[in-house]
């Protein structure tokens, strides 16, 4: 009976050729008309006005055993495959700006289908989890990250701001927003980002994108090509990858400038390290990297490889004649501090490196406290 015209206002339309009586759809344009309802009434089926509210209209499948199929519901959401869930209009309106606007514009006196059926072009299982979260039957910690991303798309699409923020906060488990969180993560397969990256872009999950780009930089080029990314996204990726590759050469070059080519060769009276000690250690880094020049020591994962350099520096020793050359304890501590400072600077620069923002704070990551027993606020608009 209705579809959406300019400005999002519902307008009447002629009935398409469909046997399922939808009153409107979110983006697939399926609608119904009085002719459709009359045909249902004359074909031996129960008239819409006399059918029990918890009985699905013709052509729609339901599962009365589902927890989110409510016998006292007054709206039916229909997912892909014409699978319906009977829910409450007030719950949808209180949590989702999309449905609040939708119902405020509809002239309910002209809707003859009971209950009204809203066609949503979404996956049935994802819609069910979406509703379970709205009704607080589940928490975000009950579901895996892949499903969190799926419902994040729905919360973004239907303007459920509170739940969207909670989903983004949960993504910290996979896409950290601080170096401390990153260091606590297990080193899992980086290819998982291939499954999630486009969803992060589509849902504008800005706080998760810097680390997602970082993971992409460690993957083979053919895998990136298979994502079908837009030109601007690819530009951000290539520019960021080029900048990342310079992190370790820049770090070692600065070490050389300070401790090999610099005027000072000691830190205090107790330090016995000479310029040659630092020179030998840096040459050892190059040898371990299989390179002969500093500028060739590129790395797709400098955050990890800088930690490896720190371990190598602490354990470094070299035999010269009868002497064993190694860093003194003070120099080891100075070297470790230099590595930590470089990693922090690198992490802080990730948003700017990939053309996203000048800092992590500018990305506006969600400040949400997630509790296992948290019940969402009533109004998320």
UniProtKB/TrEMBL annotation:
Tree of life domain: Eukaryota
Cited InterPro entries: BTB/POZ_dom (IPR000210), SKP1/BTB/POZ_sf (IPR011333)
Cited PROSITE patterns: BTB
Stretch list, region Disordered: 1-68
Biased composition (Polar residues): 30-47
Ranges for domain BTB: 73-143
Name this protein carries in UniProt: BTB domain-containing protein
Organism: Sphaerobolus stellatus (strain SS14)
């Amino acid at each position: 009976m209705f579809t959406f015209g300019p400005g999002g206002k519902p307008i009447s339309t002629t009935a398409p050729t469909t046997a399922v009586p939808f009153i409107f759809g979110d983006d697939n344009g399926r609608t119904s008309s009085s002719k459709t309802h009359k045909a249902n009434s004359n074909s031996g089926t129960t008239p819409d006005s006399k059918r029990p509210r918890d009985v699905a209209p013709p052509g729609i499948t339901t599962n009365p055993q589902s927890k989110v199929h409510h016998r006292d519901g007054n709206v039916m959401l229909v997912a892909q495959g014409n699978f319906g869930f009977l829910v409450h209009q007030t719950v949808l309106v209180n949590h989702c700006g999309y449905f609040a606007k939708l119902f405020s514009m509809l002239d309910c006196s002209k809707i003859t289908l009971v209950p009204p059926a809203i066609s949503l072009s979404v996956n049935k299982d994802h819609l069910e989890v979406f509703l379970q979260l709205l009704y607080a039957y589940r928490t975000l910690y009950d579901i895996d990250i892949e499903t969190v991303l799926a419902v994040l798309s729905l919360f973004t699409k239907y303007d459920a701001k509170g739940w969207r923020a909670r989903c983004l906060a949960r993504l910290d488990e996979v896409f950290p927003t601080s170096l401390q969180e990153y260091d606590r993560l297990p080193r899992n397969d980086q290819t998982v980002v291939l499954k999630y990256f486009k969803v992060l872009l589509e849902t504008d999950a800005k706080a998760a994108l810097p680390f997602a780009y970082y993971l992409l930089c460690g993957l083979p080029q053919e895998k990136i090509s298979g994502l079908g990314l837009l030109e601007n996204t690819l530009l951000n990726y290539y520019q960021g990858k080029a900048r990342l590759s310079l992190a370790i050469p820049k770090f070692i070059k600065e070490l050389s400038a300070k401790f090999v080519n610099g005027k000072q060769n000691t830190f205090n009276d107790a330090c016995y390290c000479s310029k040659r000690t630092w020179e030998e250690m840096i040459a050892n880094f190059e040898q371990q990297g299989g390179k002969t020049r500093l500028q060739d020591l590129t790395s797709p994962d400098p955050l990890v490889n800088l930690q490896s350099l720190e371990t190598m520096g602490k354990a470094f020793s070299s035999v010269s004649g009868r002497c064993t050359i190694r860093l003194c304890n003070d120099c080891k501590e100075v070297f470790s501090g230099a590595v930590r400072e470089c990693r922090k600077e690198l992490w802080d620069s990730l948003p700017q490196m990939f053309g996203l923002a000048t800092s992590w704070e500018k990305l506006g990551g969600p400040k949400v406290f997630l509790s296992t027993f948290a019940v969402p606020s009533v109004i998320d608009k």
